[in-house]
Amino acid sequence: MLLPSLITGLWGGLLALERRAFLQAALSRPLPAACGVGLMLGDVTAGLMVGLVFELFHLGGASLGGVNPDHETVPAVTSTALAVMLAQHAPGTAARPALWALAILVCAPTGILGRRVDTRLDARARRYFGRVVNAAAAAGDVERAVQQNLRAMWPHFVFYGLLSASAAVLGVLAAPVVQQCPPGLLRGLAWSYPVLGTVAAAMAVHASQGQGRLRVAAVAALVVALVLLGALGARAWA
């Protein structure tokens, strides 16, 4: 439990910084973020399938007028960590799509939590920005300016790192409960995965604001549903 939690926490904390403070090479987008944690935890397929849903869901998100959108990185990382840990510690329960869907449903609200935390941390960062400007303008104190920048960034790393690590811990602790779930419930969760992907695809197209977006959204949702159902039908679900 300790090593996966540490890996997930470090990855989540670093991506929180990459998303807001440095590099910004799109590694914090849901798909690469989820694939990264899935690869490090030994299940890149879970990362791909979970990250795909969140990538589509948040594709139209943007920060407009200084208003933060829902956090797109933390639900992808936490959902993947939860799904992987459930699969590793609850073997033989049911199809992996059931665990993907369960993890998505449990961790999706962390996007709203992340938005609220970002709003509070941004207010704190603005105070440090003023100190950085004063230090650089008044005395040319570059070292002090760097220290103020680091102090402004560390809460992002700590909070999102702990939140990501907690998902891995939850996966280990919840595995015995999942093993006791009725087969019918798990089959229902498995079939809900393509539904989640379909809804996410429709929302992604609708958010584009393009002409005829409703028709395109319907077609995109149908295509995604058929692809996911075909892919899941070709797998051994047990």
Give structural notes:
- The chain has 238 residues and is an all-alpha fold.
- The protein has one domain.
- It contains nine helices and no strands.
- The chain is globular.
Structural class designation: mainly alpha
- Sheet having the most strands: none
- In total, the number of strands is 0
Number of domains: 1
Number of helices: 9
What is the residue-mean pLDDT, rounded to a whole number?
A: 77
SSE string: HHHHHHHHH
Short note summarizing the structure:
This protein has nine helices and no strands. The chain has helices at 2-20, 30-41, 44-57, 73-89, 96-107, 110-138, 142-179, 183-206, 213-233.
What attributes does this structure have?
single chain, 238 residues, mainly alpha, 0% strand, globular
Blueprint of the fold:
Layout (H helix, E strand, L loop, with lengths): L1 H19 L9 H12 L2 H14 L15 H17 L6 H12 L2 H29 L3 H38 L3 H24 L6 H21 L5
Helix pairs in contact: 1-2, 1-4, 1-7, 2-3, 2-4, 3-4, 3-5, 3-8, 4-5, 4-7, 5-8, 6-7, 8-9
